[in-house]
Amino acid sequence: MRKLYLLAAVTMAGVSAVFSLLAELEKRYDLATRHLGWIAASAFVAALVAQLWLSRYADRGHAGLLLRVGIVASAVGLLWFAASTEVWQFVAARGLLGAGVGMIVPPARRALVVGAEGNHGERLGVFYSAYLAGFVFGPPIGGFLTEIGDVRLPFVVFGLLTASMIVPIARLDMPEADPSTVRTDIDSRRVLRRLLRSRKMLAALLVVVSFRYSIGVFEPLWATHLDDLGASTRVISLSLSAFAFPMLIVAKQAGRLSDRVGPRLASLLAAAMTLPMMATYGYAGVFWVILIVAVPHGLMEAILSPGSQSAVALAASDDDAASAQGLAEASGSAAAAVGALTAPSVFEAYGAGPAWVLAAAVMAALLTTSWVLDPPVRRRSVAVEDGRLRPASAIEG
Question: Is the pLDDT confidence value at 385 over 50?
């Protein structure tokens, strides 16, 4: 399973390098800010397609094939990024990278869960930490490579590193699918309709949508906004590490906090606390203020991410657990695409302040609706029963 952890770290390092170098690409190739939105959105749309239509094959005996195809798609996307010079090429390359990640994550998570013996939560936690580690170290490595070479070098290096993962992954034994658990396409559609009729599920999904929408806003705006404030490529790269590093350190403790107070309450409150931070970014006149605000923002998202996933799990039955997580991922990808497409246009038309404030307002509306649909209550504790999170009161009763 260590090979899957390494794959997560290497893949995310390449993705985060794209994130941190968009401003450099904007200057080198004379791209408009709205073009950065197209580039970012293409990844989320491609990931959405992969999650909705391809991830099901991981449960049908094709998990290993999906992993290998995802690695190849991610590597080609990064190398294409290095060779691109026009907007459509960057959009297509980023979309291919997004599709690759969308194909890698579902079968990797499935292998970790199916192959576990009572410790799948621990395995998924380590997988998430590896994913964050790639996000932490990818941008500074990308910034360093840009300074010693040019903006194309990081994509070549990360592309080749990602391609090299095909060798260890090809030798990985993937757990076989159980034919008795495979759903038909008709069953899958019925599951989604059933899930979407649940107020608790809709409320939990809205928190995921709010979180992923903010990620969609961040990708095209973060680097170019800091660049406008005079930050160097190295500082922009380190800023992303400053944002993600606290998440890496406290991920395990954040999960425990979510278990203690209840994932629904923890995720909603953590998401609400990010709203003033989002609004602050647009009106901070110097980049170091933004870097300071990014640290507590990262801490809140460390609570928000696992809490929102747990809330989705609690809103579904055991039989619908995988479908619920897939629905949450697809909803999040769609929300991220909307954020990536709309935020740059507002940024160009009205400036940084209104762009970041509008993003915070959209998030506030989503979180308020979630709260109204299913007001959270603090649970005394949550526990694990048959590998699934359950409120302690439900287990005791």
Answer: no
Listed range (198-207, 227-236, 313-322, 323-332) with the worst mean pLDDT: 313-322
Token readout for 5 is 């952890």
Residue type, 273: M
Half-sphere exposure of 311 (CA within 13 A, CB side): 37
Q: What is the mean pLDDT of residues 202-212?
A: 94
Which among 156, 128, 339, 367 is positioned nearest to 244, based on CA atoms?
128
pLDDT digits (tens, 9 = 90+) for 39-93: 988 988 898 888 777 766 776 677 788 899 999 999 999 999 999 999 999 999 9
Q: What pTM did the predictor assign?
A: 0.74
- What's the token pair of residue 379? 């649970």
* C-alpha torsion angle, residues 78, 61, 175, 66 (rounded to 10): 0
Strand positions, DSSP E, 13-111: none
pLDDT in tens, 284-312: 888 888 888 888 998 888 888 777 877 88
Tokens of 365: 């509306």
- Neighbouring CB atoms inside 10 A of 285's CB total 7
Domains contained in the chain, CATH given: 1-173 (1.20.1250.20), 191-397 (1.20.1250.20)
Cβ count near 30 (within 10 Å): 9
Q: Amino acid letter at 117?
A: E
User: Tokens 């406008």 identify what position?
Assistant: 228
Q: Is 286 exposed, middle or buried (0-12, 13-18, 19+ CB in 10 A)?
A: exposed
How would you classify residue 355: left for phi > 0, otherwise alpha for psi between -120 and 50, otherwise beta?
Answer: alpha
The 10 Å CB-count burial string (b at 16+, else e) for 76-105 is bbbbbbbebeebeebbbbbbbbbbbbbbbb
Structural contact between residues 336 and 216, judged by C-beta atoms closer than 8 angstroms: yes
Could you give the C-alpha distances from 166 to 11, 57, 161, 191, in angstroms and in order?
12, 19, 10, 34
The position carrying tokens 């695409």 is: 337
